[in-house]
Write a sequence for this structure.
């Protein structure tokens, strides 16, 4: 009987409690009501739920957990979630605060039960990326076939279930916005079982994924935007909570704004902070940012080097109408932004994909007017389309239409299109929103039934016959009148002709991977989330989110390459070849450091390092990645290299890497100067599906003696990664 226990077993008694709580007038009265409720349910022997199925994959733990063993004696909160779900994302801050208040030693454990909606979400590597992306620090089990979901008769995401120390049902809450209720329930349960001595203080075998995450320039980049006039590429470096601005032609990093930790602060570039920014739009010296988990719209002024807030109050809003001045208007999880025009001067409005309320909003940068709407003053933030219901509903009236977690925007301002393209991720479709009258229509993917949000797949075709899987990004090329789609969960880039509604695969194999391949069809992506077009529609920049890379698709040559950002950061490699900055680039903390014995040389000689590098068995250098070396001098010894850092690329490790350095003819510093040879290698498995970056540094003291001499001195080095 116990194995059949479901949430319906406590529905009646919990409903009675909810009614009593509404009538309670004091916090003490509410706490006593819940305490007596726990006491009442604890006396029942029919509420023990089934244990986790054996053989399931677990994350953030050293080994699988069991309700009957490791979790026995703990109050357990089960979070039934799927990682695409915006509502599931919304409760993560509540869970973080919850875990800080009640530790495992206190007797409370949060366990994420991942019950996938999309087939792509059943893959453990993809769940692993989501756990890292959202900084989930509690155990997560991949219940790919939703066995426990069905046994407990869970019906929607997210659902939270609180268990007693015997694995017995206590409470269940559905959806977001229940932080206070959850705290009340958990507090009463911990108090009840602590008084009876039934809680255990033992620790669990927690092993966080984030502790083994390799350093890299990018971390889960969400979106990209390009300005061809200024030749700037803007990257939302989401996992590092920052925005990067680089030269689109050379890859040289120009600005770093925010990061590496999350925060919410305006000010100078060094002061400003973000929290998982996603959408970015750039024009000239201004960058607009959807600061997603801060629920803000921010503006970056590249000339003033400052960040300011244009909309949002810093906490998640529930308003589905808007109309207030931006900084006073609560908003919810803005996921993308793009510039447009609405009844006023050019680019007077910022369109916003408001994923949290399933709507499209407008932030007026100058006075203007929405189609069929009233005049709006500059700074006003207002809903444009979407009722707020999570549906795939098309309608001639924008407020009667409905979206399902819109996550990508692209504007086609001119006739015959004159529309906003919307990547509607949870309906797995691309929709159009007419700029003239706000009519919402289907383009490709999805289903005619507005309530069916499970019409997904990977099918090339026309209109509703084409199938996508959770697309997150769209890019419009007016020169070719084509729309490009980041079909995220199919790991593909697709192309749509809006005139015929034909949708076909452009790039990607359909399998998650990281191979650049000889052409589009053999290249691999891993949940690409952002896309933008450049160079008259010849180039596509893709935020290959789970590969932590920006890739460039050249539509003329049918090739995919890596966009290498040349950045001097604590977790990055320098650009090469040639002479770089006067200060040595910093290495990640994980870099191997090898100190060499001094070598005797004479002024004027050439010191040549011959470095043999060995990769782990079954791996190869990542094609197109910025593997390189850098030769630098210690502080005070810059005279050795003429005040520069000398760099070069590493494209082959089958032969030794040769690094020559000609010493000056005069000893400018005296003493025993030191050179440092650093290497950064990006390598991946032969399959191309997993890649990493490792670094090492060799410090070489020099004994410069005697008069200047010709010839050279060779130093042989070797390192196995």
């Amino acid at each position: 009987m116990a194995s059949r226990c479901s949430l319906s077993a406590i529905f009646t008694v919990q409903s009675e409690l909810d009614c009593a709580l509404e009538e309670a007038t004091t916090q003490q009265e509410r706490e006593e009501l819940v305490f007596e409720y726990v006491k009442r349910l604890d006396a029942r022997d029919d509420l023990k739920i089934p244990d986790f199925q054996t053989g399931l994959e677990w994350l953030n733990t050293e080994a699988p957990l069991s309700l009957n063993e490791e979790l026995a004696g703990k109050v357990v909160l089960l979070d039934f979630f799927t990682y695409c779900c915006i509502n599931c994302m919304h409760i993560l801050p509540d869970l973080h605060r919850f875990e800080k208040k009640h530790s495992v030693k206190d007797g409370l454990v949060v366990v994420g039960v991942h019950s996938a909606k999309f087939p792509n979400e059943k893959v453990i590597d993809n769940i692993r990326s989501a756990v890292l992306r959202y900084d989930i620090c509690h155990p997560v089990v991949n219940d790919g076939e939703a066995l426990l979901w069905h046994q407990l008769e869970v019906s929607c995401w997210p659902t939270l279930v609180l268990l007693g120390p015997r694995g017995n049902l206590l409470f269940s809450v559905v959806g977001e916005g229940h932080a206070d209720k959850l705290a009340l329930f958990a507090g009463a349960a911990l108090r009840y079982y602590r008084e009876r001595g039934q809680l255990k203080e033992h620790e669990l075998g927690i092993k966080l994924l984030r502790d083994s995450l390799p350093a890299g320039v990018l971390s889960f980049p969400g979106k990209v935007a390009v300005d061809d006039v200024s030749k700037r590429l803007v990257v939302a470096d989401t996992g590092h909570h920052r925005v990067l601005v680089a030269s689109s032609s050379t890859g040289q990093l120009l600005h770093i704004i925010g990061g590496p930790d999350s925060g919410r602060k305006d000010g100078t570039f060094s002061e400003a902070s973000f929290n998982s920014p996603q959408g970015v739009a750039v024009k000239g010296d201004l960058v607009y940012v959807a600061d997603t988990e801060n629920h803000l719209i921010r503006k970056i002024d590249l000339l003033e080097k400052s960040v300011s807030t244009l909309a949002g109050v810093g906490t998640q809003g529930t308003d589905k109408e808007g109309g207030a001045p931006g900084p006073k208007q609560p908003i919810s999880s803005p996921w993308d932004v793009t510039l447009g025009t609405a009844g006023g001067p050019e680019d007077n409005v910022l369109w916003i994909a408001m994923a949290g309320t399933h709507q499209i909003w407008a932030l007026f940068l100058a006075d203007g007017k929405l189609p069929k709407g009233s005049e709006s003053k500059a700074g006003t933030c207002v809903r444009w389309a979407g009722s707020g219901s999570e549906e795939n509903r098309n309608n001639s009236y924008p407020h009667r239409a409905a979206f399902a977690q819109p996550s990508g925007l692209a504007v086609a301002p001119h006739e015959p299109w004159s529309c906003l393209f919307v990547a509607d991720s949870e309906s797995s479709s691309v929709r159009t929103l007419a700029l003239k009258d706000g009519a919402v229509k289907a383009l490709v993917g999805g289903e005619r039934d507005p309530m069916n949000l499970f019409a997904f797949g990977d099918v090339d075709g026309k209109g509703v016959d084409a199938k996508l899987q959770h697309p997150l990004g769209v890019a419009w090329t007016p020169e070719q009148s084509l729309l490009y789609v980041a079909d995220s969960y199919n790991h593909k880039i697709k192309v749509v002709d809006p005139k015929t509604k034909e949708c076909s695969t452009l790039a990607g194999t359909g399998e998650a991977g990281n191979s650049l391949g000889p052409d589009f069809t053999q290249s691999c992506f891993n949940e690409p989330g952002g896309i933008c077009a450049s160079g008259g529609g010849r180039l596509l920049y893709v935020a290959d989110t789970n590969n932590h890379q920006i890739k460039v698709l050249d539509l003329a040559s049918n090739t995919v390459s890596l966009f290498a950002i040349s950045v001097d950061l604590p977790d990055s490699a320098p650009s090469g070849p040639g002479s770089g900055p006067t200060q040595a680039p910093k290495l990640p903390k994980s870099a191997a450091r090898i100190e060499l014995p001094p070598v005797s040389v004479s002024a004027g000689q050439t010191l040549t390092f011959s470095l043999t590098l060995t990769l782990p068995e079954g791996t190869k250098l990542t094609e197109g990645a910025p593997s390189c070396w850098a030769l630098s001098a210690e502080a005070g010894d810059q005279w050795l290299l003429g005040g520069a850092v000398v760099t070069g690329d590493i494209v082959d490790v089958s032969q030794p890497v040769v690094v020559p350095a000609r010493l000056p003819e005069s000893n400018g510093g005296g003493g025993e100067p030191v050179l440092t040879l650093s290497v950064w290698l990006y390598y991946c498995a032969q399959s191309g599906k997993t890649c990493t970056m490792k670094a090492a540094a060799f410090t070489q003291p020099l004994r410069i003696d005697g008069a200047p001499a010709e010839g050279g001195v060779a130093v042989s080095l070797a390192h196995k990664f």
Observations:
- The helical segments are 11-23, 27-42, 86-90, 92-101, 124-133, 147-151, 179-195.
